[in-house]
């Protein structure tokens, strides 16, 4: 247990003692060289990283952006169910306009001529039956096509299922077309029109650059090396650039990201502020995650028959959604961040002094000698002192003064 006198001494020292810096010139090759190396490293950090790489002399602003898209392309299919059919942009782009995104249907399961009626439910482990007792009138399951009537009816020549009141015939989504129904979608093109604004600097621009004319726009296709500023992208090229296979992705669908980067140095000419495009697949698709892969949804087209019966064509659409993501920042010279970073850099030079003091006072062989030269103890002259502290010379001076 600490003596009460020690506590009083510590409190007295805390309240009635004051430290002031003392400059001591130490002629040591090791310490001097270490001091200059630390200062050189700080100088390199301030100039190289803060000012050159991070452009610490600039005021910055984040991008404000708007995006519109347009898809073009035609595909032809010939199947026993639909016959010979042409698919254009009004058929496969759903909805016609999205918010910074566009969905292109590449595969589908279609159920024609549905009407509201009584029919056998699609067979699975919860709907198959052998007699009416297996079915519950009024029951609606999570995955039901309609409301059960309580009857067990033939679905085909070998299976019986519970009868439902629903849109009949019910959808059979067990067999997905392979290859994709619209496999020619790989040649469709996507035009992306992107307008950006940096409000702090009043700077606006769009990705259709002033050097692009209408004739060029009608024929160009984006290519990272040969044509990096064309705003028209072939769907397969985007998927390939993300390291994916288009035909494989087209079967079950997926989500692609088109990233547009607008990092602009407004201290340079405005013509050098240009977009950079990158691509990646956003939905996680690998061999270890096989539950609910891809991207799909359902929609219907409604009509009335000649007899006035409400009918519809149900489509389960699989496809690729392209999300257009715009990001970036602009910088321009401003005196305030310049002065702040210069002041911060000068303050960092104090680190060299602190580091050298620690090594000199605690790790060198002559640390006690350096400590005597570093610190000088002075008593309050007005109160007088009974004891002298410090080096031998200082104690002699103290005694002589008294």
TrEMBL record:
List where the protein spans the membrane: 37-53, 342-364
Give the location in the cell.
Cell membrane; Lysosome membrane; Membrane
* Pfam families with a match to the protein in the record: P2X_receptor
Coiled coil segments of this chain? none
The cross-references to PROSITE patterns, in alphabetical order and at most eight, read: P2X_RECEPTOR
Q: Which residues are glycosylated?
A: 187
One cellular component term (GO) for this entry is: postsynapse
**Has keyword Cell membrane?**
yes
Catalytic activity reads:
Na(+)(in) = Na(+)(out); K(+)(in) = K(+)(out); Ca(2+)(in) = Ca(2+)(out)
Cross-referenced InterPro entries: P2X4_purnocptor, P2X_extracellular_dom_sf, P2X_purnocptor, P2X_receptor, P2X_RECEPTOR_CS
The set of disulfide-linked cysteines is 119-168, 129-152, 135-162, 220-230, 264-273
The alphabetical list of record keywords is: ATP-binding, Cell membrane, Disulfide bond, Glycoprotein, Ion channel, Ion transport, Ligand-gated ion channel, Lysosome, Membrane, Nucleotide-binding, Receptor, Transmembrane, Transmembrane helix, Transport
Q: Name one GO molecular function term.
A: extracellularly ATP-gated monoatomic cation channel activity
Cite the binding residues for ATP: 70-72, 189, 296-298, 316
The record describes its membrane topology as: Multi-pass membrane protein
Q: Which GO terms describe its biological process?
A: calcium ion transmembrane transport; response to ATP
Query: Subunit structure of this entry?
Result: Functional P2XRs are organized as homomeric and heteromeric trimers.
Please explain the role this protein plays, according to its UniProt record: Receptor for ATP that acts as a ligand-gated ion channel.
PANTHER family under this entry?
Answer: P2X PURINOCEPTOR, P2X PURINOCEPTOR 4
Record family assignment:
Belongs to the P2X receptor family.
Protein name from the UniProt record: P2X purinoceptor
């Amino acid at each position: 247990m600490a003596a009460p006198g020690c506590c009083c001494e510590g409190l007295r020292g805390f309240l009635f003692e004051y430290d002031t810096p003392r400059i001591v010139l130490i002629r040591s090759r090791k310490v001097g060289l270490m001091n200059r190396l630390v200062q050189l490293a700080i100088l390199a950090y301030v100039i190289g990283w803060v000012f050159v790489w991070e452009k610490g002399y600039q005021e910055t602003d984040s991008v404000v952006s708007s995006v519109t898209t347009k898809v073009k392309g035609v595909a032809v299919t010939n199947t026993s169910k639909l016959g010979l059919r042409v698919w254009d942009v009004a058929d496969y782009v759903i909805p016609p306009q999205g918010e910074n995104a566009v969905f292109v249907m590449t595969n589908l399961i279609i159920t024609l001529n549905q009407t509201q009626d009584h029919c056998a439910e699609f067979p699975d482990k919860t709907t198959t039956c052998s007699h009416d007792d297996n079915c519950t009138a009024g029951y609606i399951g999570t995955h039901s096509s309609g409301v059960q009537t309580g009857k067990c009816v033939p679905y085909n020549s070998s299976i019986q299922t519970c009868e439902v009141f629903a849109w009949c015939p019910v959808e059979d989504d067990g067999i997905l077309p392979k290859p994709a129904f619209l496999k020619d979608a790989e040649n469709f093109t996507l035009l992306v029109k992107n307008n950006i604004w940096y409000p702090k600097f009043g700077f606006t621009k769009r990705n259709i650059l002033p050097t692009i004319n209408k004739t060029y726009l009608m024929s160009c296709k984006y290519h990272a090396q040969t044509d990096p500023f064309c705003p028209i992208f072939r769907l397969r090229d985007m998927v390939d650039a993300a390291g994916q296979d288009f035909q494989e992705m087209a079967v079950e669908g997926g989500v692609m990201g088109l990233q547009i980067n607008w990092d602009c140095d407004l201290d340079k000419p405005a013509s050098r502020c240009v977009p950079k495009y990158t691509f990646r697949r956003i939905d996680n698709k690998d061999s270890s995650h096989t539950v609910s892969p891809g991207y799909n949804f359902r929609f219907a087209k409604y009509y009335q028959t000649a007899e006035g019966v409400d009918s519809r064509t149900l489509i389960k659409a699989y496809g690729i959604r392209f999300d257009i993501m715009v990001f970036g920042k602009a910088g321009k010279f401003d005196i305030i961040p310049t002065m702040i970073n210069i002041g911060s850099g000068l303050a960092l030079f104090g680190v060299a002094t602190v580091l050298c003091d620690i090594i000199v006072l605690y790790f060198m062989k002559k640390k006690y000698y350096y400590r005597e030269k570093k610190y000088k103890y002075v008593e309050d002259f007005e109160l007088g002192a009974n004891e002298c502290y410090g080096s031998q010379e200082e104690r002699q001076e103290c005694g002589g003064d008294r």
